[in-house]
Write a structure and sequence with these properties.
The protein has 30 helices and 13 strands. The protein is an alpha/beta fold and about 750 residues long. The longest helix has 29 residues, at about 460-490. Strands 3, 4, 5, 7, 8 and 11 form a six-stranded mixed sheet that branches. It has a three-stranded antiparallel sheet with strand order 6-10-9. The chain is about 55% helix and about 10% strand. The radius of gyration is 30 Å and the shape is elongated. α17 packs across α27 and α21 (about 575-590) runs antiparallel to α24. It binds flavin-adenine dinucleotide (FAD). The site of flavin-adenine dinucleotide (FAD) has 19 residues, from β3, β6 and α20.
Length: about 750
């Protein structure tokens, strides 16, 4: 059989037919995709369509002879398969036809088959005895443009900071002796303070630029130099300086903020105790006001009541100590007090004991330690008194009368640090992903015997599925954290309770994501990922603790979920609660009414790629979990179970809600951002990343959606296939996507990434 038997239009489909029949595994839905494409192809005559459809009969597949003649036809064309083309099969088919006939235009129906069946070059390149142009990346998207999109309005500040990180002081090397490592990191922190970065988030009067949003960015970028650097920098300027800025008043700012920003006054943030970590309200250190001497006496009462894990404890001159403030014999709750630790000669002051916490899993460039106070006296002016003060007459005064509310208001002001920790985790994940993807775009393992060259790791569908959704998550979380920081900094919105709830959940899911991503990248690099020189090992150790400090993730998730319920909380003990439940259930059943069999079975691409479907699915999960928790709590309360116990009984349910709410929030933040994008090409790329994030999120929780009857088995399968196809479609752009993170060459020191 020769080309004369086929029209140009039919000939264009032959490579496609050759591929889809080669594995003899055509499923009904695949046949459907091809048949639809043929029906919709206006370039085909009715005879062409008849001929093509005749080859789609699974009961009577094309005979071997015909199959071989297709192969010969393709080989004789001498056309090269160019793997890095955006749609390699469509382009290949077009070129084969152009060899035998006149030029023929690009066929969108073939492109739709290629996309919808997720046919990728490594699935079929072995079938053709043709030369293959191997290229690792597409240049369709510019990494620089992507980086510019991600930097947004902070581009100038970030670019100059990245240039500063090219100083030799930031060159990475293996440092295993903790003393040397800590001293080096201290020098780096002082270097950055000298350039004004320490004070960046402080007001201009104290050497800063009031730029907390920019600060969060540089904090993330610092992770690329070293995790210990980020954390020590964060302790000094964010935690210690931040407590002075946010909990102190003008006298504290005037006295300490300038020196803190310049790293001339080194400080630490002493909140956690050995006996009390997550439960900060339960700490035991006391700060007792002595009216006669107008001093506050700081004391560690018991064996386990010392401060522990305190960052910068060995290098600090001063600590911001959290303690129970006792005035006139009354405990006014947890307050922060500035306590000098050492003199100019760096000797400990009387009553202070400090012990090194020693070597840790990671962050060994940070000096964490334990601190004890034995009746240490400080002037009453050292009380950071923005939210509660000791008056001239020796009485305690606070505008916030409720001690609980006062405590949470104080902690709430420190939420910026929590956003920064999530950002640093994200920075770690971006670095590991860049290393793993760059490696997978060079490293080859295994091949089909007909091929000379082995396949790139990145061309294995399993590798794509392992890494691509993690890249999509990085983009979604980047934009989400940007938005959170902007909300946190928005002074026109003084009530930060909602941001606090949102950040609690997001910090949890993002730092967990970062740890998972780093582990996956380690494995994706094989043995090379285990070598310190490739940086993933240190990232693993450093980012691990991000799930615990600045609020343990499991505890924070409960906070986030309680925030979701808080609108209804006041009603829990009253008759009005049933009204709330009615409202919730009516909202739910409104939504549920749309979940008819047509919806649960809907598997077409337009539906599955539609953000409306994603939002609906993610909102439905949050709503349903909220409703069922509220119902369960109501049931317990009706039985007379105290509300603390009732909440314990639904604890795991609460955490599930916290995660669901956070994933929904992240996706909605991302699509809201994409709506503002003007360049259609990049907007399409970001939308694809959003779709992958959403479908991946639904796929991870498919068992829940199936249990609830929200999706059918067929839809669940279709979602899984779509996730794989999206990974394939993004494969050519992975290089640009990781370069788009903007990690400068001088910081990307991993040999396997270069
Ligand atoms: C390297 C490092 C640096 C640190 N830096 C500082 C610092 O500079 N300043 C500072 O003040 N602190 C610092 N910390 C302390 C850190 O904030 C605490 O470790 C953290 O708050 C958790 O407290 P914990 O270790 O006592 O754990 P715990 O509170 O004992 O928690 C242990 C486990 O129990 C679980 N758990 C606890 N309560 C609940 C609950 N209600 N429901 C369900 N599960 C629960 C947690 O999820 C966790 O998995 C640092 C810690 C480390 C390791």
């Amino acid at each position: 059989m020769t080309k004369e038997n086929y029209t140009a239009q039919v000939l264009q489909y032959i490579p496609v037919f050759y591929i889809i029949w080669s594995d003899d595994l055509l499923s009904a839905s695949e046949i459907n995709v091809v048949e639809n494409a043929i029906s919709n192809d206006v370039t085909l005559s009715s005879n062409d369509k008849k001929q093509l459809k005749a080859w789609m009969n699974v009961k009577n597949p094309p005979k071997n002879e015909l199959f071989k003649s297709w192969k010969q036809l393709i080989i004789n064309s001498g056309v090269k398969l160019v793997e890095h083309e955006t749609y390699p099969l469509t382009a290949f088919s077009q070129k084969v036809v152009s060899h035998y006939h006149k030029d023929i235009s690009y066929n969108d129906q073939i492109k739709s088959i290629e996309i919808n069946l997720g046919i990728q070059p490594n699935h079929y390149s072995h079938l053709f005895d043709v030369h293959i142009d191997l290229e690792k990346k597409s240049s369709q998207y510019s990494a620089k443009t992507i980086d510019t999109i991600l930097k947004g309005k902070h581009a100038k500040a970030i670019d100059s900071f990245r240039a500063v990180l090219s100083d030799p002081i930031f060159s990475w090397e293996v440092r295993r002796n903790k003393e040397e490592f800590r001293n080096h990191v201290l020098k780096q922190v002082e270097f950055l303070a000298g350039k004004g970065y320490g004070a960046m988030a402080y007001p201009e009067a104290y050497g800063g630029t009031n730029d907390m949003e920019g600060y969060a960015y540089i904090f993330e970028n610092m992770m690329w130099a070293d995790g210990s650097l980020s954390i020590k920098f964060g302790v000094q300027f964010g935690l210690f300086g931040g407590s002075i800025q946010k909990l102190g008043t003008k006298k504290h700012h005037d006295k300490y903020l300038n020196d803190t920003g310049k790293a001339e006054l080194l400080g630490c943030f002493a909140m956690t105790e050995t006996g009390h970590g997550s439960n900060v309200r339960g700490i035991k250190t006391t700060a007792t006001y002595n009216k006669d001497s107008e001093t506050i006496v700081i004391h560690t009462p018991g064996k386990n009541d010392n401060k522990e894990y305190i960052g910068n404890a060995i290098h600090s001159k001063m600590a911001s100590v959290f303690a129970q403030l006792i005035v006139n014999g009354k405990n006014e709750g947890v307050h922060a007090i500035l306590v000098p630790l050492r003199n100019e000669a760096h000797e400990l002051l009387p009553g202070i004991t400090v012990e090194d916490n020693g070597y840790k899993l990671g962050l060994n460039g940070v000096d964490n330690g334990k601190i004890w106070f034995n009746q240490v006296e400080v002037p009453k002016e050292n009380l950071l008194n923005k939210y509660g003060t000791i008056l001239a007459n020796g009485d305690y005064y606070s505008e916030i009368k409720n001690p609980n509310k006062r405590f949470f208001t104080m902690l709430g002001t420190l939420v910026g640090g929590r956003i920064c920790v999530a950002r640093a985790g994200l920075g770690g994940a971006k670095f590991a992903l860049t290393v793993a993807i760059k490696h997978a775009l060079k490293r080859r393992q295994f091949n089909d015997s007909v091929k000379i060259q082995e396949d790139l790791l990145m061309d294995y569908p399993s590798h794509q599925l392992r890494l691509t959704p993690l890249v999509a998550c990085a983009y979604v979380y980047h934009i989400t954290l940007d938005k959170m920081m902007a909300l946190y900094c928005d002074e026109s919105q003084p009530d930060k309770r909602q941001v606090e709830t949102q950040v609690a959940g997001l910090k949890s899911i993002i730092t967990w994501y970062a740890n998972d991503a780093i582990q996956e990248c380690r494995e994706a690099c094989g043995g090379k990922g285990y070598l310190l020189e490739n940086r993933i090992a240190d990232l693993k150790g450093d980012v691990d603790i991000f799930t615990t400090f600045e609020g343990d993730n499991n505890v924070l998730l409960q906070l986030a979920a309680k925030g979701v319920l808080s609108d209804f909380k006041a009603e829990f003990n009253s008759a009005g609660f049933s009204t709330v439940l009615k409202l919730l259930s009516s909202q739910l059943s409104d939504k549920l009414s749309t979940i008819n069999p047509l919806y649960t079975n809907k598997t077409d691409k337009d539906h599955l790629y539609n953000p409306k479907f994603h939002v609906h699915a993610l909102e439905h999960r949050t709503r349903r979990l909220t409703y069922t928790i509220a119902m369960r709590i109501r049931g317990y309360i009706k039985k007379g179970i105290p509300s603390y116990q009732a909440f314990l009984k639904v604890q795991t349910h609460l955490m599930t809600l916290g995660k669901a709410y956070s994933a929904e929030l992240a996706y909605k933040s991302f699509i809201a951002h994409n709506d503002t994008m003007t360049d259609p090409e990049y907007k399409a790329l970001f939308e694809k990343l959003g779709t992958l994030y959403a479908l991946h999120e639904i796929r991870k929780d498919a068992s829940w959606y199936l249990e609830q009857g929200y999706i059918s088995g067929t839809k669940s399968k279709a979602i899984r296939q779509r996730v794989e196809r999206l990974c394939t479609e993004l494969r050519p752009h992975l290089n640009s996507l990781v370069d788009g993170f903007g990690i400068p060459d001088h910081l990307m020191t991993a040999p396997i990434a270069n």
